[in-house]
Specification:
CATH superfamily of the largest domain: Carboxypeptidase-like, regulatory domain
Mean pLDDT: 85
Distance between the termini: 81 Å
CATH topology of the largest domain: Immunoglobulin-like
Number of domains: 2
Shape: elongated
Number of helices: 2
Low-confidence stretches: none
Structural class: alpha/beta
CATH class of the largest domain: Mainly Beta
Number of strands: 8
């Protein structure tokens, strides 16, 4: 069979039918190769993704998970819109431990490294009402690492929020 195919497709064959058959064979071979590569890549991605989910869940259950979700932003006064220096930004104590914490700088800018799973972050400062914001994403929507920008307005104890 292979000899017959080789005779039909050999380069010395100058007939129109032979050239057309070579083009069809080449196009079909390239399509099958591309389809196989896409299928192989999809299966590889699915195994990698499910393995990441299992590793994350196991590490979280064993309290050995590493924080990979970076939240940054500015803490501002809700009335004056001025930055609130040295505000505390921390995982909400009502959530699952471990809890991570960061302090804003003198310009109200902060950066907190925490888990990517959905949870709440509490922002507080003396003389202000604490504000709780939702962060993170459901594990099946996120990749193992990520960044999120969250600007938070906190209101003085004697002011009413808008």
């Amino acid at each position: 069979m292979w000899r017959r195919l080789w005779k039909e497709f050999r380069p010395e064959d100058e007939s129109e039918e032979g050239r057309e058959m070579r083009e069809i064979f080449l196009r079909t071979a390239l399509r099958f190769t591309a389809a196989f590569a896409v299928l192989f890549g999809g299966v590889f991605f699915a195994f990698w993704w499910s393995g990441s989910a299992i590793r994350f869940g196991a590490a979280r259950a064993a309290d050995k998970a590493l924080p990979t979700w970076r939240i940054s932003g500015v803490v501002r006064d809700g009335v004056t819109r001025q930055p609130v220096p040295w505000a505390a930004v921390e995982d909400d104590p009502g959530g699952h431990p471990p809890f991570f914490r960061a302090d804003a700088d003198y310009m109200g800018e902060y950066e907190l490294l925490t888990f990517a799973e959905p949870h709440r972050v509490r922002v507080s400062s003396p003389g202000y009402r604490p504000e709780v914001v939702d962060i993170g994403r459901a594990w099946f929507l996120w990749m193992p690492e990520g960044v999120e920008k969250v600007n938070v307005d906190i209101f003085p104890l004697n002011a009413t929020p808008k």
